[in-house]
Design a protein that fits this description.
The chain is an alpha+beta fold and 364 residues long. 26% of the residues lie in helices and 28% in strands.
């Protein structure tokens, strides 16, 4: 629309050749007699101190209706935005996985779920396998981080630096976000640590819940991917005093692994899980360290913890027993361990010339 001066937008009424500036009105006085729909001369006080006099006719015409529709549409959008912000943290976008219900119950536990405390290792990992789908990777992870809750949360909120912190992460971008910032969608590219397999790309729906003091919950679920078929998980941070944070994570993910043997899928997944979790711990406890220093220290800790990870891989538990390991009251039962099953021979932890982790391991 043409402008009649700085900050003035012309308003053309339907069927009327004149135009009157309306966008910067200080006040409007309109009177109309009884009879035909014609307005008396209008008094306009403009910030610019001048206006183009004209008659406003047909107040029920098409232009007025368009303005009303615009106002109504704006109200609908604002209401929808507020409604989206008010959704429950359990309401995560994306198709639910077989483990969405139990993950939601774990996320609601007031003090976080009770899991084994790390003894002699920086992170305690328990492996869970799915009946009839041995390549559906599941794991719970717990850490004690000697850093305030706010520092740990700052690292998990720093999405642009995920590619620097987490091994195998090529790129992460926020492509959509709710008005209050608690809901957002990330587009990710992940390096697959196997020769001749291209990088995988996928989108995750994320929800962050900070409604409880001393507690932050990160929920995430797969939205879209050509390679990853399921990815569902939660990270729970609970303040354990002013300088310590209890970190709990539960992840279940599945991809189109193709010809990859089961032991390689699990070993590479556990390697990625361990390195990424430890990277969060190291960066929180040593905020002055560079990402290169964090990665080097994490590699050293992985070498020391390989024995524990091998036991986790060999003694995978039934995923169906996970629900029994958590209760909302903070008590827990330890699920029965599966009998030892000999896995494929060979060292699956390292593959020469490769780095990173399988798709969807890092979901933060």
């Amino acid at each position: 629309m043409p402008s009649y001066g700085p900050g003035i937008v012309a308003f053309a009424t339907s069927g009327t050749p004149g135009r009157t500036a309306l966008s910067e009105l200080e006040g409007v006085s309109v009177t109309s007699p009884t009879g035909p729909p014609a307005l008396q001369p209008t008094t306009l006080a403009l910030r610019e101190g001048r206006h183009q006099p004209a008659d406003l006719r047909d107040p029920g015409g098409a232009t007025i209706r368009r303005r009303k529709l615009c106002v109504l549409f704006g109200c609908i959008l604002a209401f929808a935005s507020r409604a989206d912000d008010a959704r429950s943290p359990d309401d995560v976008d994306g198709p639910p996985s077989p483990y969405s219900a139990v993950i939601a119950r774990i996320a609601r536990a007031p003090d976080g779920p009770s899991l084994p405390t790390p003894l002699g290792v920086p992170v305690a990992i328990t492996c869970y396998e799915t009946r009839d789908d041995q390549k559906y990777v599941g794991a719970t992870q717990t850490m004690n981080i000697e850093a305030p809750l706010a520092e740990v949360a700052r690292i998990l909120d720093d999405i642009p630096h995920f590619k620097d912190l987490f091994p195998g992460c090529v790129d992460v971008r926020v492509i959509d976000r709710s008005r209050d910032g608690t809901r957002f969608v990330t587009a990710r590219e992940q390096r697959v640590p196997v020769f001749f397999i291209p990088n995988t790309r996928y989108q995750l729906s994320n929800v962050v819940d900070r409604s409880t003091p001393g507690r932050v919950v990160y929920r995430y679920r797969l939205l879209q991917s050509d390679d990853v078929t399921n990815s569902d998980g939660v990270v729970i941070l609970v303040a354990d005093g002013p300088t310590r944070t209890r970190y709990t994570e539960v992840d279940f993910f599945r991809a189109r692994w193709g010809w990859l043997p089961t032991h390689l899928v699990w070993s590479k997944s556990l390697r990625g899980i361990f390195l990424s979790d430890v990277a969060v711990k190291l960066k929180a406890e040593h905020p002055d360290w560079s990402y290169a220093q964090v990665g080097e220290a994490a590699d050293g800790l992985f070498r020391d913890a390989r024995g524990e990870l091998e036991r986790c891989l060999a003694d995978r538990r039934a995923a169906a027993s996970l629900d029994g390991a958590f209760t909302v009251g903070g008590n827990s039962r330890v699920p029965a361990r599966l009998p030892y099953v000999s896995r494929d021979a060979g060292d699956a932890w390292e593959t020469a010339g490769t780095a990173g982790e399988p798709p969807a391991v890092r979901n933060h």
